[in-house]
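S.,

As promised, the nickel (II) ion run. Input:
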Amino acid sequence: MIREIVKYPDPVLERQTEPVTEFDDDLRKLVDDMFESMYAAKGIGLAAPQVGVSKRLTVIDLSFKERPEDRIILINPEVILKEGKQYEEEGCLSLPEIREKVSRAAKVKVRAQDLDGKWFEMEGTELLARAFQHEIDHLDGILFIRRLSALKRDLIIRRIRKMQKAGEW
Ligand code: NI
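Predicted complex:
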C-alpha cells in the first residue's frame, strides 16, 4: 500500500522516534509499504517518520528497484563509525524540489537490526554513506536543512512559506 509522504513542516519529521520492539507481520507490512511509497515518490531512501510513523526504521535502495539485493532495511540503526568528509547535493522527499550541498562523513559504519531482530553491521561510502547519515538523521528528528548554515536554512524556509501561501507546497 502506498502511503502519503509527510512534508515539512509536519512536526512528526522533527520528533525523536521510538525504537522498534515488535518484529512481527505489522513491521513487515510497514517495510513493504515504505518501499512501495518510496518507489512511487521516486526516492532512494525513506524513513518511517516520512510516512507519519515515529519509529526507528528506514529503507534504502540506491539501485531504485534494479537489484533486489540492494534493498537495505535498517531497524533501530546507529552510526558506529564515521571517517573522512564529503560535500555533495542532497534532497529529501519531505522537502520536494529543495536541493543543497551538505557536509557528511565520507565513510560510515552502521549497526542495525533486520526484520527478524538480528543485529548486523554494514559499511557505506560515497552515496550510501550519505544515505545512511541522511536517513538516520530523520530518525533523530533532523532534516537535512538543519545541517545547512542558518542563513541558507532561513532562505529555504522562507521559500517554502511562500510556496505554502501560493498553494504550491
Ligand atoms: Ni529525507
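The pocket of nickel (II) ion is lined by residues 92-94, 134, 138 (CB under 6 Å). The mean pLDDT is 97.

- D.
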